[in-house]
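[step 3/7] inverse_fold.run input=structure_tokens len=419
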């Protein structure tokens, strides 16, 4: 097992490039199941979640080549084994995204039901209900979802709650359904839009991209494509905070700042100077201590839950009192007790973290839990006085490509060591 050792207290300065988006790459990889030919993807990040997805697709009969420049060539057009087994699904919940494409292309699928998760119960009832509305019969037994459909037929689907991966599953299923599907209350996250745009390059007919109403006119088949995955707004936001929390400055290249409005507004509120250009964002903290900000997470275009833990760390060392309310996941607070061990003054009341900023944190031995909580501990280690050791780094490797190399480029003292 690897751990990270961080000697904190350096202001970070420099320029890095954002990686391709994890949460856009995952559905797009699974969308390759729908194509009748190979799909070439550029800008996919090197992450363990991507390797898990490739292993899952390979288990089902897909073939792939991963080039050293991150280009990924995948042929999932002739699957032979329509099962997503517990072994892989338990390590990555996004595996549920094979369900819609398999049903649409082959009329059947057996997918392990994802279990609970460190950040919440995260049921998949809305995925299943919507697929049933498209005409699938679904049975859950022995921990597996058994889905079957002779034909999927387009219909009106109203999500009672906005959900990213269920929207993606239904969009993918509807591309090959008979007739027109309209999804109301669809997730508007940029990663959903990226999937839809990619599907359209494969010959799908999706309109309303980026809005809460998606219309999908079913087609008979989809072809292979070449597609460049969008940049990772959450990774970029995390590095912006790394600079802000250490009083430093950073330019992030290869990023769409338009998809980060809510995050950038909060960074301006904490006192950062922000400049955006076509494909870059520059943040300069000019050595200032951040001002505390109140935050409530929500669905896009509002403040993302995937940035909640990172902003909590900013508030921990900021000037003033703050409250952060998490409205998407019920248990996304695993970082709180770890931050308290570094000297943070935090109280959790229901789904709200109340924080009184302290001038500095002290390094400590910490345990990473889930992906974004782990990222927040790295940020805390960068800001803290002394040495911070973070165990269970594999959580970070799910979502942050070469994190220590990128941080070192910015001047951080960070090492990965093996136990
Ligand atoms: N929900 C249900 N039933 C469902 C589906 C969702 O009750 O069938 C609930 C969830 O429990 C949650 C809410 O709806 O309370 C929203 O969950 P959503 O379905 O939108 O989350 P997700 O699709 O499972 C994706 C991202 C998450 C990100 C959320 C919210 C991927 C692969 N994952 O998850 O990313 O936090 O949307 O934006 O796209 C991460 O990258 O660290 C991460 C957790």
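[step 3/7] decode complete -> sequence:
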């Amino acid at each position: 097992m690897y751990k990270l050792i961080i000697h904190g207290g350096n202001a970070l300065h420099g320029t890095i490039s954002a990686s391709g988006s994890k949460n856009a790459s995952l559905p797009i990889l699974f969308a390759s199941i729908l194509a009748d030919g190979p799909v070439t993807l550029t800008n996919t990040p090197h992450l363990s979640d991507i390797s898990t997805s490739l292993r899952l697709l390979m288990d089902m009969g897909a073939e792939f080549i991963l080039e050293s420049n991150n280009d990924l060539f995948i042929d999932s057009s002739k699957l032979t084994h329509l099962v997503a087994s517990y072994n892989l699904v338990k390590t990555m919940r996004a595996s549920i995204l094979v369900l819609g494409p398999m049903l649409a292309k082959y009329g059947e699928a057996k997918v392990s039901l994802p279990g609970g998760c460190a950040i919440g119960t995260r049921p998949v009832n809305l995925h299943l209900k919507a697929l049933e509305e498209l005409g699938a019969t679904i049975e859950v037994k022995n921990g597996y979802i058994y889905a079957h459909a002779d034909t999927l037929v387009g219909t009106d689907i109203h999500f009672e709650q906005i959900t990213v991966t269920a929207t993606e599953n239904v969009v993918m299923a509807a591309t090959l359904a008979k007739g027109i599907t309209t999804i109301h209350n669809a997730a508007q996250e940029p990663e959903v839009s990226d999937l839809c745009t990619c599907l359209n390059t494969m010959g799908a007919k999706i309109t309303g991209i980026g809005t809460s109403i998606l219309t999908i006119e079913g087609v008979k088949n989809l072809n292979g494509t070449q597609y460049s995955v969008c940049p990772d707004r959450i990774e970029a936001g995390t590095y912006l905070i790394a600079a802000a929390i250490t009083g430093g400055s950073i330019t992030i290249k290869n990023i769409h700042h338009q998809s980060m409005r809510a995050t950038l507004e909060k960074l301006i509120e904490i006192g950062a100077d922000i400049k955006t250009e076509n494909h870059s964002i520059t943040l300069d903290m000019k050595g200032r201590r951040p001002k505390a900000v109140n935050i409530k997470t929500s669905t896009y275009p509002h403040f993302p839950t995937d940035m909640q833990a990172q902003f909590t760390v900013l508030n921990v060392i900021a000037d003033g009192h703050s409250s952060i309310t998490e409205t998407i996941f019920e248990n996304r607070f695993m970082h709180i007790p770890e931050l308290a061990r570094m000297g943070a003054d935090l109280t959790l009341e229901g789904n709200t973290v109340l924080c009184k900023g302290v001038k500095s944190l002290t390094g400590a031995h910490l345990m990473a839990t889930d992906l974004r909580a782990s990222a927040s501990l790295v940020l805390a280690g960068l800001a803290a006085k002394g040495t911070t050791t973070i165990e269970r780094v594999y959580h970070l490797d799910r979502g942050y490509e070469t994190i220590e190399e990128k941080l070192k480029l910015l001047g951080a003292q960070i090492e990965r060591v093996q136990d």
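[step 4/7] annotate
The radius of gyration is 21 Å.
The first strand starts at residue 2 and ends at 7.
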